[in-house]
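Preliminary data (for renewal application), adenosine monophosphate complex.
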Amino acid sequence: MMSAPVSILPFDGKSVCLFCGSSDGANPDYVAAARAFGAETARAGWRLVYGGGGVGLMGASARGAHEAGGRVLGIMPAFLRSRERLYDEVETLVVTSMHERKTLMYDQSDAFVVAPGGVGTLEEVIELLSWKRLDLHSKPIIFLNINGFWDSLFAVMRHSVAEGMTPSSFLQAWVVCDTVEATIAALQASDVTPHLQHDPR
Ligand code: AMP
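Predicted structure:
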């Protein structure tokens, strides 16, 4: 099915896509980090691209960026509008499907940050990693690894390398940061050029 063309406000700077949970999680550090990440991306001049929800770490990051004066682009499939409580204080696109949401999130971003999250976040990051493995993209992938949240994923990847299923070089495909400050520094140090695909389609 062809999707309707979407219209996105022009933006010439760099954009970071945040994948993170639609829940708050058990530890208040997660929401605090998401909020601080949003605010710091805004201060660093990056646009935040995210799933468009007003709940959990997603909502915290968008509010943090918006309240710090940053640009935010939320991308939400229509069927999740109420479940994920669309945060419409910022630029938000309502699209028809999860596939369209993910495609736009990828296309509109120059780098990816992965904060704690549930199975939805996990699915997104696995796709991001598998596409990198297939050389379909070379955009930086940075884990905001609050409280070692993603350590077990890294252990699975090391196991895959040890068992000969993944080349050891692939362990360099992502960067792990324990704090928001380190994540912002890694973003700033990454070699990205703003993409022209931010043009309206
Ligand atoms: P979660 O980490 O499970 O709280 O979900 C975080 C975000 O991922 C939410 O906005 C979900 O709508 C989204 N999500 C859930 N399943 C998928 C999927 N299969 N692909 C992409 N995003 C998803």
